[in-house]
């Protein structure tokens, strides 16, 4: 706890764009990532953005989640992102490749992003830095198996990346249920959840 606060303070005091050494240590890519650890759904807990326009767009969301499946097919695995916005659920499915702690989208002409899994002290979390290769802008997302996580470390990490304060998601908002296409029962579930949120 103390270390986290000390680092945050260091970052506050840093006026240059170059991150202090402590910050670099703080945003270390994972040495080892067992793909099996990723399998299943993760709720978005908080996000940090370099681009203020994205921040505004993001605040319109009630909830957001990701789902890794078919991880045994590494390096090519299945990635679904769902967002709940304006009372509706939106999902997007992508095939991604995982090499070490770096994930890339297989259709790079559609999503030219490099995602790096970073170290976090939160045990049921994944911390992902999204580097947009076209705009060179970064985003930092904290996902968790639970909906609420201690935020101090993430806030400091966002600050280390010189981003404005993160958006913290409301843990009480319903997540979207992902329906496999063509399953009417699952679709009903998704609609019901949408109304409750
Ligand atoms: C899972 O991976 C296997 C082997 O690569 C592939 O044949 C199958 O289509 C994949 N399933 C899904 C749902 O992506
Ligand atoms: C959140 O959900 C409620 C109820 O579905 C909806 O009316 C509202 O517009 C949603 N807010 C956002 C930011 O999506
Ligand atoms: C992705 O971005 C990089 C860096 O700007 C660029 O070199 C590459 O051509 C882009 N790839 C696609 C498919 O747009
Ligand atoms: C995650 O994706 C898999 C494969 O599409 C699906 O079977 C599963 O129900 C999804 N999990 C959630 C919580 O949506």
Topology (elements, then pairings):
Elements: H1 2-13, H2 21-26, H3 35-38, E1 40-49, H4 52-58, E2 61-69, E3 76-85, E4 88-99, E5 102-105, E6 113-118, E7 125-132, E8 138-144, H5 152-160, E9 167-168, H6 184-196
Antiparallel strand pairs: 1-2, 1-8, 1-9, 2-3, 3-4, 4-5, 5-6, 6-7, 7-8
Helix pairs in contact: 1-5
What does this protein look like?
This protein has 197 residues and is of the alpha+beta class. It is 26% helix and 35% strand. It has an 8-stranded antiparallel beta barrel with strand order 1-2-3-4-5-6-7-8. Strand 7 and strand 8 form a beta hairpin. Helix 1 packs parallel to helix 5 (152-160). 27% of the residues are buried. Bound molecules: 2-acetamido-2-deoxy-beta-D-glucopyranose (NAG) (4 copies).
Kindly report the spatial arrangement of strands forming the biggest sheet.
1-2-3-4-5-6-7-8
Q: In total, how many beta strands?
A: 9
The radius of gyration is 17 Å
Helix count, DSSP H or I runs of 4 or more residues: 6
Report the principal-axis shape.
Answer: globular
Q: What share of residues is helical?
A: 25-40%
Structural class: alpha+beta
Report the β-strand fraction as a percent range. 25-35%
Biggest β-sheet, characterized?
Answer: 8 strands, antiparallel, barrel
Average pLDDT for all residues? 82
The ordered string of helix (H) and strand (E) elements is HHHEHEEEEEEEHEH
Separation of termini? Answer: 34 Å
Q: Uncertain regions: pLDDT < 50 for 5+ in a row?
A: 1-16, 180-197
